[in-house]
Amino acid sequence: MQTIHMSDIYGQYLTMKAEIDNAIQEVIKSTRFLKSGKVLDFEKKLADYLDTNVVTCGNGTDALQLAFMALNLEPGDEVIITPFSFVSTVEVLVLMGLKPVFVDVCPATFNIDETQIENAITPKTKAILPVHLFGQCANMEAILNSAQKHELFVVEDACQALGTDYLFADGTKKKAGTIGHIGCNSFFPSKNLGAFGDGGAVFTNDTFLAETIRSLANHGRKANYEYQRVGINSRLDSIQAAILEVKLKYLDEHIKARQKAARFYDEHLHGLSEIKLPGRTEYSEHTFHQYTIQAEARDELKKYLESKGIPSMVYYPKALHLHEAYASLGYKAGDFPVAEKLTQTVLSLPMHTELDEQQLEYIVNNIKEFF
Ligand SMILES: *Cc1c(COP(=O)(O)O)cnc(C)c1O
């Protein structure tokens, strides 16, 4: 049996090697490493796939920063976020002088608990920032309703959910990241659509906002050496764009491969009373950036799997409100019991496009053996 990886970027590369190698060579020959037509080509193709405007940038964290720069909020304005995610959301808000206000998550989906959002809204609230964690969308219809009622912006952190379909009650479908005012995406190598380095993108249906974000990502540029606003330098380079353009063609296929592996886990692990499988909803597809189970004996299980050559990861071992860096926000242990409990019980199993049945069988058999 092949070595089991948490994610298998090299194995996936081998399935597209000739195309990717050619695409990289083309960029090298052109020597247009930055701001080339390649970047615009990729943006156009991703925009067609998502049916929205796309502005690429340096990484997913920059995408979040650009989104909030474009919204022109005032220092001290409040933004509602989840404490169970990667650090980028809280980091960007604090860097920008905005005030993150945490709302606990749903125990089954790990996403922000939409029923608690209205309680957190104050006259200073300006935006809601849901994260579509592990590949599954938060309850966007409820979030959009609250946002509309209180005149708030909705910025989606779709970094883990590129390609996920969201289903509205009326049957309309939209892709994760294209539902709110602005969506943010990362092309970090292990993401659903991963570059061979850093990359990010901002999505918006609003053409005016898209142009503002494009200018902000390019030093606030209006025309050549004319600067209209204070911006940053954040761009996707041409080699990454060329690689992503090849990989985008296979994104739906790659998502199907993840979903197939997830189905195997579902079918073979359900009924094990010691673990809880990832919860599903009627409103969101799941594209399984991660397949994350919950177990009281999480740490022991992780060690056991390791001893059998099976990697697993804890996303995330600490809730965001409990980090030293954000102590000044004034939160304490016990404030968000669901998120805090999850940090002690979650375990993400190997999940990628190259897992075969033999590997999956070995993984589930060892999990069963442990219990
Ligand atoms: C990966 C990720 C980010 C940050 O993306 P970078 O490209 O590493 O800056 C932000 N939020 C979430 C939820 C992520 O998974």
TrEMBL record:
Positions of the catalytic residues: K191
Any one GO BP annotation for this protein: polysaccharide biosynthetic process
N6-(pyridoxal phosphate)lysine modification, residue list: K191
Protein keywords: Pyridoxal phosphate
Pfam family membership, one: DegT_DnrJ_EryC1
CDD domains xref list: AHBA_syn
Family per record: Belongs to the DegT/DnrJ/EryC1 family.
Name of this protein: Pleiotropic regulatory protein
Species in which this protein is naturally found: Draconibacterium orientale
